[in-house]
Write a sequence for this structure.
């Protein structure tokens, strides 16, 4: 029985050792060839919201405290494999709430809730043969807010 408990403890510990936050993954991926990383704070998002005419989008932007974007253009096979591996590490810290595969493009959505039960972070990963994009929305937001933003033209 003691051996079984120790084995289970090691398995659980190893799962957390391989899990990574968005910032940890972004720090590793932004060093890859052709990677571009941007982080927008609340002030920059407020300036961006000022240029938005859609009232619903303005409301959503006001809820955001940060938005982080990482893009890798024309990734080679090794870079794409690294990207896919790092994104897969989110599954132990974040809840996967959506996945869509369409015409060679894969979209994954992960979310994290705070202690108060509100969504604090939504991560969107979109990858195809031409690029890999990772976007993190932070703030008091809901998945429907991200859906509304993505439907804007």
């Amino acid at each position: 029985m003691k051996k079984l408990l120790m084995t289970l403890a090691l398995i659980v510990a190893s799962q957390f050792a391989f899990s990574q936050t968005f910032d940890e993954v972004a720090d590793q991926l932004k060093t890859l060839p052709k990677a571009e990383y941007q982080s927008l704070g609340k002030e920059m998002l407020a300036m961006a919201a000022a240029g938005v005419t859609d009232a619903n989008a303005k409301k959503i932007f006001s809820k955001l405290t940060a938005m982080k974007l990482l893009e890798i253009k024309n990734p080679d096979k090794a870079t794409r494999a690294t990207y896919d591996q790092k994104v897969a590490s989110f599954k132990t810290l974040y809840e996967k709430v959506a996945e869509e595969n369409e015409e060679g493009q894969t979209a994954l959505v992960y979310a994290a809730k705070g202690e108060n039960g509100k969504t604090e972070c939504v991560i969107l990963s979109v990858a195809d043969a031409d690029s890999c994009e990772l976007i993190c929305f932070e703030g008091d937001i809901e998945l429907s807010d991200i859906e509304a933003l993505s439907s804007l033209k």
In short: The mean pLDDT is 79. The longest strand covers residues 64-73.
